[in-house]
Amino acid sequence: MDMYACDLCGYYYDPEYGDEENDIPRGTAFEKLPSDWACPECDASKGEFCKLDYEELDTYEEFDLHYEEYQE
Fold first, then answer.
1. For the whole model, what pTM was predicted?
2. Please, where are the H alpha helices in the chain?
3. Is 23 left (phi over 0), alpha (psi -120 to 50) or beta?
């Protein structure tokens, strides 16, 4: 599944983790988010997000994604 980034604040939506704060379960693709879902950081709409190109991503650290915070 694809990751998306908020153009306004840089928040990353990773479907692997969902959005627990907004009751979005793990495994929910960005396309399946409710139409009224908004960025949990800045309240931007889904239209303010852009799809990340995995071929350009070398590591999570490159984009300052706090991957370790989500590992259990």
1. 0.72
2. none
3. left
